[in-house]
Amino acid sequence: MRADNFIYFFTVCGFFLGLIAAIVKFDDPFLMLATSIFTTFVFYVFIHIVIINYIDPNKLGVKNFNKKDFEENTNSLIVELENREGKIERLIKNVDYELAQIKLLNEENKARGQNAKTI
User: Where are the transmembrane segments (predicted)?
Assistant: First the structure.
C-alpha cells in the first residue's frame, strides 16, 4: 500500500475524531472548529512520523525499467499497426472500386431503360 493512502486515511480519521470530540466537549462553534483542525493536524503529523520510521525512502523511487523489452514491444506494436493500416487501405480501395462499378452499372441500366422507352 502506498504511503499516500495512509496519510489520507489517517488525516480523515483525525478530522472525524476531532469533530466528534469537539461536538461532545464544546458548545462554542469556534472551539469546535479549532479542536477539529488541531486534531486533524496532530493525526497528519503522527502518520508522517510513522511513515518516516517504517518506510525506506531509497526503495520508493526504484523501478526496474528494461529498455530492451520496451523497445521490442514498441517495435512489434508499430509493425502490427503498419500491417493493419495496409489492410485498411486495401479495403478502402476495394470499396471505392466496387462503388465505382455500382455507379457504372446504374448508369448503364438507366441508359438501357431510356433506350427501351424510345423503341
Answer: 7-24, 30-55
* Cα within 13 Å of Cα(112), Cβ side: 6
Q: Which among 39, 2, 45, 3 is positioned nearest to 23, based on CA atoms?
A: 39
Whether residue 2 has pLDDT greater than 70: yes
Q: Is 64 left (phi over 0), alpha (psi -120 to 50) or beta?
A: beta
Read off the DSSP letter of residue 1: -
List, as one string, the DSSP characters of 7-50.
HHHHHHHHHHHHHHHHHHH---HHHHHHHHHHHHHHHHHHHHHH
Report the sign of the C-alpha dihedral through residues 70, 76, 80, 86, in that order. positive
HSE-up of 43 (CA within 13 Å, CB side)? Answer: 20
Provide the CA 33 distance to its chain's centre, in angstroms. 37
Which residue do the cell numbers 529498455 mark? Answer: 67
Question: CA of 48: how far to CAs of 32, 86, 115, in Å?
Answer: 24, 56, 92
pLDDT tens for each residue of 94-110: 999 999 999 999 888 88
